[in-house]
Write a structure and sequence with these properties.
Blueprint (H helix, E strand, L loop, with lengths): L20 H23 L9 H7 L2 H18 L11 H11 L2 H13 L5 E8 L4 E7 L10 E8 L6 H4 L3 H8 L5 H9 L14
Antiparallel strand pairs: 1-2, 1-3
Helix pairs in contact: 1-3, 2-3
Catalytic activity: 2 superoxide + 2 H(+) = H2O2 + O2
Keywords: Iron, Metal-binding, Oxidoreductase
Family: Belongs to the iron/manganese superoxide dismutase family.
């Protein structure tokens, strides 16, 4: 069966005023949906039709990789947001953040700075390495930590212009300010504690 645009865990209007419904519908129903449609067309009647999304990303290049990775990145991003988000992470994730950066506010400052200065289109990620160390990394275009051995994404923010241009024009810092009010720390905490990446998105398999 083909991949489908994944259902959201909240209404498209529920992130207002931090992300308008207009932005959300444009981003989700147009950009994200187009990646899904293009991926399905590209893998139709090929061996990749039976693979998990992560497997396609790791085994492909060019247009197939770009569309598969953007489907994954966007799905992950939507789960990083919540109308009940914001505040602080809890438990062992907060402990790890404090251990790495000294304080949550310092982590937030450095993450924001990297996202603002991520040149062009791309993504900024909080990831955990296989030894449990936390890092902030930037990727360009469709690039994703899924391809990096021993690196597990915990949280991301989309810094393509289509994520914020309607609401903030070219003011990426204003978009980042709004982002912290809707971060779904429960999702990031679950990712930190989870052992396998694939099982997080097994429901996206088209097999």
């Amino acid at each position: 069966m083909p991949f489908e645009l994944p259902k959201l865990p909240y209404a498209t209007s529920s992130l207002h005023p931090f992300m308008s419904e207009e932005t959300f519908n444009f981003h989700y129903l147009k950009h994200h949906a187009t990646y899904v449609d293009k991926l399905n067309a590209l893998i139709k009647q090929t061996a990749m039709e039976s693979l998990f999304l992560e497997q396609i990303i790791r085994q492909s290049s060019g247009a197939i990789f770009n569309n598969a990775a953007q489907v994954w990145n966007h799905t992950f991003f939507w789960h990083c947001l919540s109308p009940d988000g914001g505040n602080l992470p809890q438990g062992i994730l907060l402990d790890a953040i404090v251990q790495n950066w000294g304080a949550f506010e310092e982590f937030k400052r450095q993450f924001t700075e990297q996202a603002i200065n991520n040149f062009g289109s791309g993504w900024t990620w909080l990831v955990a390495t296989k030894d449990g160390k936390l890092e902030i990394i930037n990727t360009s275009n469709a690039a994703t930590p899924v391809t990096q051995h021993g690196v597990k994404p915990l949280l991301t923010v989309d810094v393509w212009e289509h994520a914020y241009y309607i609401d903030h024009r070219n003011a990426r810092p204003a978009y980042l300010d709004a982002f912290w009010n809707i971060v779904n720390w429960s999702f990031a905490e679950a990712n930190f504690e989870h052992e396998e990446l694939e099982s997080l998105f097994a429901h996206l398999s088209n097999s």
